[in-house]
Structure formats: C-alpha cells, structure tokens
C-alpha cells in the first residue's frame, strides 16, 4: 500500500493482506472522504517515476494499443463469460429501475444509443471498440443497419463473428481486428461506447480527426 497508493490498497485486499468486518462502511467512508484520501494516499516519487515510464512504454500507439488490448481482453472469452451478463457487454448498463435485470439494462442502453444516433435502415455504422458484438447485434437486427465493428482483441473478434453467424447477421455485420486509425471507409454514423477513455489524451486530436474524416458529408 505504501508503494502503490490506492491501487496498492485494492490489490493488497485482493491478495488477502487486509480485511474489514464492515467493507460497506469502509467504502462509504472512503467515498465521503475521497478528495482527502486521494491527495494523501500517494505512492513515493520513485514509484511515480516508474509508473510514468510504464505508461510511456504502453502509450496508445498502434503497437502499444494492440499490446494493451491483448493483455486485457485476450484473457479468454470463458473468463469474461463467468461474470458478464448473457449479452457479453463490458460497458456500463442503463437501468430503468432498481430491479431491472442486467441483460435488459444493457439492451436498453443499446436502444437508447441507437435512438440518439437516429439509426435508420440501411445506415452504415462504424463501431470503434465493438467488444463482443452487443451493440452491433442490436443495430443490425432491430434497426436494419450495416455495421463494421472494430476491436484489437482476437478473442473478442472470434466471439463476435460466431455470434453474428448464429444470429444470421453475418451479411450485415463485419467484425475487424483493426486500429481505428487504419480505417479508410466512409460511414453514416460512428459510435464508440466507453472506449474513449482508452484513447489517451495525447491521441484525442487524432481520434477526432479520424472520426471527422470517416463520416460521410
């Protein structure tokens, strides 16, 4: 904990190095005092330097992005299937009520996004960071769109492709293992669900330049 700050706090708990008889109360206390704790539970300067070097090595260049995604998402679909809902959705759900099932909340989120995009039959959609294909399924099956889904994870791509074949949507959905910076097609709409935080601030201008260039006038 002294070396890694708040991350060390979490990791040491997972490793069984500490416990609390009232975790809910502890987390509530942490949330109520978040600003103070963040400013006072910090790793030492040497660790900050090492972390900075680590982040530089894993910068979101094309090669860096591939390494980062592979390290996270290529752990295997069986691993993610253990704790994701049946839609295999990793991003946050949108609940209509407190007791709504997670899968329904995920589908509701996709429909809300489709409505925000004003999806129309025949629209060509680019999804940057398509995951296991949840949004692509909804866009193709319910709104009649043609979807190109991008991922850098071979595991995700294999799952999403099989999913579309099983649903009879492989003629409407193309899943690519491709960096968004390498796309040259034109699209009517572009969607990216909770992928932007992985872009990295240094690459924000490039990201939006690519989106602008890929949209049809």
UniProtKB/TrEMBL annotation:
Similarity comment: Belongs to the CFA/CMAS family.
PANTHER family linked: CYCLOPROPANE-FATTY-ACYL-PHOSPHOLIPID SYNTHASE (PTHR43667), FATTY ACID C-METHYL TRANSFERASE (PTHR43667:SF2)
Keywords in alphabetical order: Lipid metabolism, Methyltransferase, S-adenosyl-L-methionine, Transferase
Protein name in the entry: Cyclopropane-fatty-acyl-phospholipid synthase
Pfam families for the chain: CMAS
Statement: the UniProt record of this protein carries the keyword Nucleus: no
Matching InterPro entries: CFA/CMAS (IPR050723), CMAS (IPR003333), SAM-dependent_MTases_sf (IPR029063)
GO biological-process terms attached to the record: lipid biosynthetic process; methylation
GO molecular function terms noted in the UniProt entry: methyltransferase activity
């Amino acid at each position: 904990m002294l070396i890694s700050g708040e991350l060390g706090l979490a990791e040491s708990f997972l490793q069984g190095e500490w416990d609390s008889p009232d975790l809910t109360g502890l987390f509530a206390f942490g949330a109520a005092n978040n600003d103070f704790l963040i400013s006072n539970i910090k790793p030492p300067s040497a660790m900050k330097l090492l972390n900075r070097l680590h982040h530089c090595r894993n910068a979101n260049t094309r090669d860096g992005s591939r390494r980062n995604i592979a390290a996270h998402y290529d752990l295997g679909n069986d691993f993610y299937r253990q704790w994701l809902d049946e839609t295999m959705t990793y991003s946050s759900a949108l609940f209509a009520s407190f007791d709504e099932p997670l899968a329904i909340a995920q589908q509701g989120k996709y429909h809300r996004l489709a409505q925000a995009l004003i999806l129309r039959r025949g629209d060509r959609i680019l999804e940057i960071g398509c995951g296991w294909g949840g949004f692509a399924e909804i866009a193709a099956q319910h709104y009649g769109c043609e979807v190109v889904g991008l991922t850098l994870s071979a595991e995700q791509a294999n799952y999403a492709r099989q999913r579309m074949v099983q649903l009879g949507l492989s003629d409407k959905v193309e899943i690519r293992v491709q960096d968004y910076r390498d796309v040259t097609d034109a699209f009517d709409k572009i969607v990216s669900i909770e992928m932007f935080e992985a872009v990295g601030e240094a690459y924000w201008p490039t990201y939006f330049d690519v989106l602008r260039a890929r949209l049809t006038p």
